[in-house]
Design brief:
The structure holds two protein chains of two kinds.
Chain A lengths: L5 H16 L4 H22 L5 H19 L3 H21 L2 H11 L9 H25 L2 H4 L10 H12 L13
Helix pairs in contact in A: 1-2, 1-6, 2-3, 2-6, 3-4, 4-6, 5-6
Chain B lengths: L2 H23 L5 H25 L6 H35 L6
Helix pairs in contact in B: 1-2, 1-3, 2-3
Chain lengths: 183, 102
């Protein structure tokens, strides 16, 4: 039986919270669920000491990216896609020993006296990306036109900022995937 | 498993993973572009995997072969797009050229 680390439990709790807040935005719920499944699978793979955990995590994130590219329609989904591209890059970096080299360089320069391990750099990077992704989905769910329609915030002229946020998050993405015909 | 089959699996698996990674970082614009690049990656990856592995001094085992096939497939995916763009630019330049100046 695997026990969850507190930070993993916090991430899953936050995913549940975001899923509930975003319940009126079906694609947001879909990405939260798929991201959660990817997180649980890749964590279990690493905790059961299966071979090449960064490879498995990278593949989970890569399939998540492909799903986002295929089904994503709005700009917030494009930004989510960019975040998980970065996550795949981190896994590749861990696989080819990039973080080990960075930590060794820091030790050589006297900036890291055994404070942080290469694996920790990788895991902290992945968790930061997961938290940023949840924050992005939460923001997209909160500033939907339906949710904010008719609300007044006295004393502040918030309407332009809300309109800006709606445009930034809910505009249609620039290029649709998989156009027909020759490239 | 015979050595040959294991090497073939490592090459093919590496090429598939390279194509998946390329699809994430260099997504094609069209379905036809996807088919063209995938075909190139799945052929060029296994064919050049061992050469690139030896040239780049990767470890001479299945792991090194897998990594090299992955790298070659990714590069071929990107290269197919670059070749296509170059061909398009060339044909566009020919179309734009004033016929009277020839």
């Amino acid at each position: 039986m695997i026990t969850l680390h507190p930070e993993q439990a916090a991430l899953l709790g936050a995913a549940l919270f975001v899923g509930v807040v975003a319940r009126r935005l079906p694609r947001a719920v879909l990405w939260v669920v798929l991201g959660g499944v990817s997180f649980v699978l890749s964590t279990a793979w690493a905790r059961y000491d299966m071979p090449y955990p960064p490879w498995f995590t990278g593949m989970c994130d890569a399939f998540f990216c492909i799903g986002l590219h295929h089904y994503g329609k709005q700009k917030w989904e494009s930004r989510l896609y960019n975040l998980f591209q970065l996550s795949v890059l981190l896994s590749i970096g861990q696989l080819i020993g990039f973080f080990r080299n960075v930590v060794e360089l820091a030790e050589f320069l006297g900036l890291n006296e055994g404070v942080i391990e290469p694996h920790q750099v990788y895991v902290i990077g992945l968790e930061t990306i997961n938290w940023l992704a949840l924050f992005l989905i939460l923001a997209a769910a909160v500033v939907t036109p339906e949710r904010l329609h008719g609300r007044v915030y006295p004393g502040r002229d918030t309407a332009p900022r809300i309109r800006w946020a709606q445009r930034a998050l809910h505009a249609q993405r620039a290029s649709p995937p998989w156009a027909e015909g020759p490239e | 498993m015979s050595e040959f089959l294991a090497a073939l699996l490592a090459k093919t698996g590496g090429a598939v993973v390279g194509a998946i990674l390329a699809l994430v970082f260099v997504p094609p614009r069209t379905r036809w572009g996807f088919v063209r690049r995938l075909t190139a990656a799945l052929i060029i990856g296994p064919v050049f995997a061992v050469h690139v592995r030896d040239w780049a001094d990767f470890s001479r085992n299945l792991e090194g072969t897998f990594g090299a096939a992955c790298l070659v497939a990714f590069a071929s995916w990107w290269l197919m797009g670059a070749v296509k763009r170059a061909a398009e630019a060339l044909s566009q330049e020919r179309e734009n050229r004033d016929p009277e100046s020839d």
